[in-house]
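User
Please review the sequence:
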Amino acid sequence: MRLRIATWNINSVRLRLDLVERFVRAEKPDVLCLQEIKCQEDQFPRAALEALGFPHIAVCGQKGYHGVATLSRIPFKRADRRDLCGRGQARHLAVALDGAAPGRKPVVLHNLYVPAGGDVPDPAVNDKFQHKLDFLDAMTAWFDGHRTKGKNRMILVGDLNVAPLPTDVWSHKQLLKVVSHTPPETGRLEQVRAAHDWIDVMRRHVSPEQKLFTWWSYRNRDWRASNRGRRLDHVWATPALDGAAVSMRVLDETRDWPRTSDHVPVIADFEID
């Protein structure tokens, strides 16, 4: 199975539906995972996206906030959502994709939107930051509890809202006390990764010594000149899919599109037996 997966924090799917259409026509992903859709399920523009060639759509929505959606040309057997931390927020979807070879486990695709964490990296005074840390701890416990880890065929994509490596931010030293790159966050994200020995697909294709960003603040008037970015969006795969990701691209040109998201899409191409 050849599989092109794209992930994009769209920052309101209804506001930026034209950009989704432009992206899909240009890149033709088999599966598109969107985060921060900012609408309830009955408000999701399903018909317009089905018309783009996605007959299989799963949505986990919430009024005005958060929300994730997975759009697929490939049938999936089920759609599960997990309320990590039990706050009733729409931040996760998992689908089991059909198309694997006979006798092989299905590929489970997780679409996640981790809480941003607010502005102050102190859980004592900022409940949003505490929620983020709790959410990451819950992810660790969840993936650590999976059985048959050597056989699980899973891909995880989404806006994890953490830039883990020094080269995932424009200035490691200056951002150590800025939410998304603080040691409590990067340490916890590493615990999540280690809980199932996840492979950082993006860093398999771009050396950890090289800068790699997927987000640039709206506050930067000339974002490309200043290049004060962070890698907040991620693509991971379990060891059972090691080597299946044959290419990866960050589409930073979309950051120049009119009325665009502050995140850019990431595409990974897989060859899965």
